[in-house]
Amino acid sequence: MATLRLPGHPLRRFTKEEAAILSRALDSVAKGDRGEQQIYMSPIASDHDFDARVEQSGVVLSSEGHGDVKLDWSEARALAEELRSFAFG
């Protein structure tokens, strides 16, 4: 399992397959390949959903009852790379 820790947010856990899917989604929105406005995943290995709003300067992760966490595009790409490394490493 891969664990995503964000300040002030609950832990999110991903299987290798989920990490690969989320990595591709983050790469896609970072490249502007699609006009997606949101990335949403309900990982089977986690008690918390992954919900990110796509903005011009990056993605904003939200979790009910917690403050938003903004990742600029370089941070979003770094997260995608970490997820990819876990999935295929």
Brief account:
With 89 residues, the chain is an alpha+beta fold.
Describe this structure in words.
The protein has 89 residues and is of the alpha+beta class. Helices cover 36% and strands 33% of the residues. The chain has helices spanning 16-31, 73-88, and strands at 2-4, 12-14, 38-41, 50-55, 58-63, 66-72. It has a 4-stranded antiparallel beta sheet. The radius of gyration is 12 Å and the shape is globular. The mean pLDDT is 94.
Structural category is: alpha+beta
Tell me the total number of β-strands: 6
Spatial arrangement of strands, main beta sheet: 3-4-5-6
Whole-number mean pLDDT? 94
The H-and-E topology, N to C, reads as EEHEEEEH
What is the radius of gyration computed over CA atoms, rounded to a whole number of angstroms? 12 Å
Low-pLDDT runs of 5+ residues are: none
Number of helices: 2
Defining key terms:
89 residues, alpha+beta, two-stranded antiparallel ribbon, 2 helices, 36% helix, globular
What topology does this entry show?
Blueprint: E1 2-4, E2 12-14, H1 16-31, E3 38-41, E4 50-55, E5 58-63, E6 66-72, H2 73-88
Antiparallel strand pairs: 1-2, 3-4, 4-5, 5-6
Helix pairs in contact: 1-2
